[in-house]
Amino acid sequence: MTYINQLSNHENETVTLKGWVYNTRSGKGLHFIELRDGTGLCQCIVALDDVGEEIFEATGTLKQESSAEMTGKVVKDDRSVGGYELHVTDVNVIQVADNYPITPKEHGVEFLMENRHLWLRSRRQWAAMQVRNTIQFAIHRFFQQEGFIQMDAPIFTGNAAEGTTTLFETDYFDEKAYLTQSGQLYGEAMAMAHGKIYTFGPTFRAEKSKTRRHLTEFWMIEPEMAFYDLDMNMDLAEAMLKFIIKTVLEEKSDELEILERNTASLKKAVEETFKRISYSDAVDQLKSDKTAALLDRMEEERKSELATIKSELEEIKKEHGSAKKWRKAQIDQRIKEIHARVDQIQEDLRNIPVWKKSAANFQWGSDFGGSDETILTMQYDTPVMVHRYPAEVKAFYMKRDPENDKLALALDVLAPEGYGEIIGGSQREDDLETLRSRIKEHDLPEDVFSWFLDLRRFGSVPHSGFGLGLERTVAWLCGLSHVRETIPFPRMLGRLRP
Ligand code: 4AD
Ligand code: MG
């Protein structure tokens, strides 16, 4: 058996492919079967003259997603998907599929989510999962090369890490246990044993946020480093992101093309230094005239684009009636694209006034919302690192800025193009008594944190770390508008199945 992504090693040889029928087309004495095998797509040409009547007929019964083996000669063809075709000499039908529910026509996203177990086979979904895998492996490579070891934090926990309101509670032999929101506190203990560690695991948040950025179950990568201050933490976050993006650009260019991802901004993120701004400067920027002007300009641009494509829509609809069959298909495709773009523009036009108001009225001391992040990042080409947030909006374990006690030595990395926060982190409070009083201030029970306080009793050192959200990173690199397409089986508000 040969895999489709290996065909370049088998030019002019006879090989057997095993896979599923992605698409079929038939002509006189010919069947064109697009076969997918999980590694790629290959056009298989089945000619009556080459295979004989019986096999030819059997091939004709193959509907979408039927499974089959195809044997034939590998022929280079630059116009063909994947660059090679198979000139088939034998076909073995494994199973003829029922009528497949996902057809090339447009489906609503709810329908596709209900059929997620099948939707995963579609080309764009396939490409996104391929990119996800490359990101995961790149993360491991980066940290291992940098001398980190992977250590796993528990998933059942006896206490909260990020605040008590977003915990999933479970029954642990008549005791309350919570699904972990973050491996960080355990990461700190592990860093005191091994110096530099990272966790890579699932995390759970019960917040009732129904947004394009929130899952209830997501994967987080959390490095934790002894003897690192906030600046070293930021250096590490930037180096890690650059390595991930560079790897994806190098190894997954075909997949990014399938996803129609414009890679210009990803290339910039690799080449240029990330801007670092303090929270206070970010607030000033948000409230500035420049930002207001930018939003006005954006509104004007959207309005004029809307007018342009609406008149294009009128034109091609008129043309449709008398168009030839091939042109009709082209027009149908374009109409679909225009509808999607119109939806997007109308959403922007609804949002912009809200964003403008929220930016202008922003109060120092609040946390940034999704729209504030979008506006901030619109002004930069690369990710932005915002540091030194008001301590009040951040977690109890963050160290305060020695220069200003109101500020926490926190760091968020905001991705451009509206993707927003992908990393949250900080330098940690390393003084026993200070941490103890923070736990009190936050109304947290000291007894469940006594082990965490021990880390400040026995060889306390300055240390830092951060958490990278895997799904938000996949969404950004793939250019996907919603995290539901970045994980095989998303769990979010209102979605537990399949
Ligand atoms: O900012 P967060 O809450 O930080 C922590 O959990 C820290 N304990 C991390 C640390 O310092 N070790 O979450 C970190 C990242 C966010 O920036 C975001 O990318 C992702 O996790 N994230 C989510 N992703 C999807 N759905 C959600 N509901 C998410 N909540 C956070
Ligand atoms: Mg955060």
Give an overview of the whole structure:
- The chain has 498 residues and is of the alpha+beta class.
- The protein folds into three domains: 92 residues, OB fold (Dihydrolipoamide Acetyltransferase, E2P), CATH 2.40.50.140; 300 residues, BirA Bifunctional Protein, domain 2 (2-Layer Sandwich); 57 residues.
- The protein is built from 15 helices and 17 strands.
- Strands 6, 10, 11, 12, 13, 14, 15, 16 and 17 form a nine-stranded mixed beta sheet that branches.
- Helix 4 crosses helix 6 and helix 4 crosses helix 15.
- It is globular, with a radius of gyration of 27 Å.
- It starts with 13 loop residues before the first strand and ends in a 20-residue tail after the last helix.
- The model has no long low-confidence stretch (mean pLDDT 94).
- The structure holds 4-amino-1,4-dioxobutan-2-aminium adenosine-5'-monophosphate and magnesium ion (MG).
- The site of 4-amino-1,4-dioxobutan-2-aminium adenosine-5'-monophosphate has 23 residues, from strand 11, strand 16, strand 17 and helix 15.
- Magnesium ion (MG) binds next to strand 16.
Q: What is the third-level CATH name, the topology of the largest domain?
A: BirA Bifunctional Protein, domain 2
Integer-rounded radius of gyration: 27 Å
**Largest sheet features:** 9 strands, mixed
Overall pLDDT level: 94
Low-pLDDT runs? none
Q: Which range best describes the helical content: under 10%, 10-25%, 25-40%, 40-55%, 55-70% or over 70%?
A: 40-55%
- From the N-terminal CA to the C-terminal CA, the straight-line distance is 32 Å
Indicate the CATH architecture of the largest domain: 2-Layer Sandwich
Ligands, ions, cofactors:
4-amino-1,4-dioxobutan-2-aminium adenosine-5'-monophosphate, magnesium ion
CATH class of the largest domain: Alpha Beta
Instruction: Tell me the number of strands.
Output: 17
Oligomer: single chain
Tally of individual domains: 3
In terms of DSSP E residues, the strand content is: 15-25%
Structural class: alpha+beta
What form results from the Cα inertia axes? globular
